Amino acid sequence: MAGSLGYAERLTWRDDVGGTLGTPEFDESNDDATLQKKIDKLTALIVASKEHGGMVVHTGAGISTSVGIPDFRGPNGVWTAQQKKIPPPKASCAFDTAKPSLTHMALVALQKNGFVKYVVSCNVDCLHLRSGLPRDKLAELHGNCFAERCKQCGTEYIRDFEMQTAGIKLTGRRCIKEGCVEKGTKRKRGDPAGSALNSTPPPLGSKLRDQVLDWDDALPETELNLAEKHSGETSLALVLGSSLQITPSCDVPLKTISKANKKKRGGKLVIVNLQETNKDKYAHVLIHAKTDLVMAGVMQRLGLQVPDYERIDSVTVAHTVRKSKEGNDSARFDYTLRIGSSHGFGHPTPWLAKIDVDFLTPLSRLGQRTSYDPSSHTNLFEAFDFGYEREPDDGFCVVELTFTFVDGCTERAYQIPSHELRHEFHDDHTKTYHSETIKYGFTTSRIVYAQAVKTENDGLGSETESL
Q1: Taking the domain 3-142+213-307, which CATH number applies?
Q2: Is 350 in a helix, a strand, or coil?
Q3: Tens of pLDDT along 151-208?
Q4: Cβ-count burial of 277 within 10 angstroms (0-12 exposed, 13-18 middle, 19+ buried)?
Q5: Which CATH class is domain 310-463?
Q6: Which candidate among 6, 203, 255, 407 keeps its CA 20 to 30 Å from the CA of 434?
Q7: What b-and-e string marks burial along 202-223, b requiring 16 or more CB atoms within 10 Å of the CB?
Q8: 151, 176 contact by CB (below 8 A)
Q9: What angle is formed at CA 265 by the lines to CA 261 and CA 266, rounded to 5 degrees?
Q10: What is the pLDDT of residue 364?
Q11: Strand partners, 448
């Protein structure tokens, strides 16, 4: 089970998940005049906050529901269903291929234009980082299902696959930062953190841990401190899509409206959420509406464009060539072609559905595999082995690689028409060995966000978000 459903299942079971569940939702978008006046007030506060370096935005599950990820405490939330002992809500997309909402992308534009100082998120879906929000402008108080970190050197790795653990547990992978070595260990050939082509495996790096908090885990101290610091130094705290029920993260927005900050900067709190929250009484402006609708209105008033979203995924293509037979007129070469994740060999590639390899150079094949479907495998770490009889002046053979990937519910493909498997040839009747690794990146998803429905065609079957 993936997405928020899988994340909830990986947490330690608790009957009491804190706070209230399933409270009614209110949508005042039917009263357009009132809603527009509130968006006017919010926009004015956002503009004024620029004097103090911009606002601090606090985000919850409500900013991701529009892309198909269920929330937790809503009338149809994951934990609400758990309490009612009914089947959980169905996710219309997986975490792995989820795309940022209009709200995510609007925050990126606002940050670039100086209206957002910092974003404090309780979400674990990685969509803020996928949207392009800088990591140093984001505090992920409850962790990230796509992140793992080295405890020894602090290096964080953002993956395109979801962690299968929660609670800061070991993931089975290791740090690859230069100089970060776990004492008394040696890397085994084929280790996910190493090179599949390295004949002398380097020492093993320190073990990595997931960054998903379980119920009893403490919030990351550095990020919590930054969240509180920035919140206490801005004139506006904007809460988007959060029920503000999990402590201590729910109290961070109150730093903006502390007596000291109110006196110094006129700190104000605005809450945009479909449900009531325990902090509503402190709000200068309270908006019961979907965050995408509100943020689209803000962007329109500021004259800013919601940036398009483009997802680029990568694969690593590597090959080795060994000369295994000498003759007067021909030489026999054995090739091993390997295709792996952008993170290296042995890592999952949930976005990739199929690989096809077509050999464009005439050759004799031994044990050749030309198609690979990784859906039945945990890791994409597959070798395409074949032999090649060639003339001495032929220094390479050519293959065509086709990667079929998943974009939403649709399969699309990207083709590399002429990948050269080069090798070196010598007439000294000695065995040759050659290896090469190339990383290919290509667009696997693109979204144009617009306020009116229109047809877009970018060759990828682009989607247009409508409000």
Answers
A1: 3.40.50.1220
A2: coil
A3: 889 999 999 999 988 999 999 999 989 888 876 555 444 444 444 444 455 568 899 9
A4: buried
A5: mainly beta
A6: 203
A7: eebbbbbbbbbbbeeeebbeeb
A8: no
A9: 85
A10: 46
A11: 464
pLDDT of residue 3: 52
DSSP string spanning 184-197?
T--PPTT-TTS-TT
**Angular region, 200: left φ>0, alpha ψ -120 to 50, beta rest:** beta
CA-atom Rg of the chain in angstroms:
26
Q: Which candidate in 104, 142, 288, 319 is catalytic?
A: 142
**What is the β-pairing status of strands 143-150 and 207-212?**
antiparallel
Cβ partners under 8 Å of residue 438, min gap 6: 316, 317, 318, 419
- Residues in the chain, total: 467
**434 near 424, Cβ under 8 Å?**
yes
Residue with tokens 């077509």: 358
Give the tokens for residue 458: 């970018």
* CB-based contacts of 381, cutoff 8 Å, min separation 6: 190, 196, 338, 340, 345, 346
Dig out the tokens for 7 from the structure.
Answer: 């994340």
Residues 461, 444: Cα–Cα separation, whole Å: 10
Is 142 designated active site? yes
Residue in the structure block whose two tokens are 């090469």: 436
User: Tell me, what amino acid is at 185?
Assistant: T
> Would you state the pLDDT for residue 208?
94
pLDDT band per the 50, 70, 90 thresholds, residue 459: very low
Q: Which of 293-307, 325-339, 399-413, 421-435 has the weakest average pLDDT?
A: 421-435
Whether the Cβ atoms of residue 349 and residue 374 lie closer than 8 Å to each other: yes
Measure the CA–CA gap between 95 and 7, rounded to whole angstroms. 10
Distance CA 236, CA 52 (A): 9
* Contact status, residue 383 vs residue 190, Cβ threshold 8 Å: no
Mean pLDDT of 437-441: 91
Helices (H), 238-386: 259-265, 291-302
Extract the tokens encoding 147. Answer: 């992140």
Residue 121 one-letter amino acid: S
- Please give the pLDDT value at position 6: 64
Element housing 285 (H / E): strand 285-287
Question: What does the mean pLDDT of the chain come to?
Answer: 80
Task: Report pTM.
Answer: 0.85
Domain locations in the chain as residue ranges:
3-142+213-307, 310-463
- Which ranges of 280-369 does DSSP label H, i.e. alpha helix? 291-302
Cα–Cα distance measured from residue 352 to residue 19, given in angstroms and rounded to the nearest whole number: 39
Q: Which helix (H) or strand (E) holds 230?
A: helix 221-231
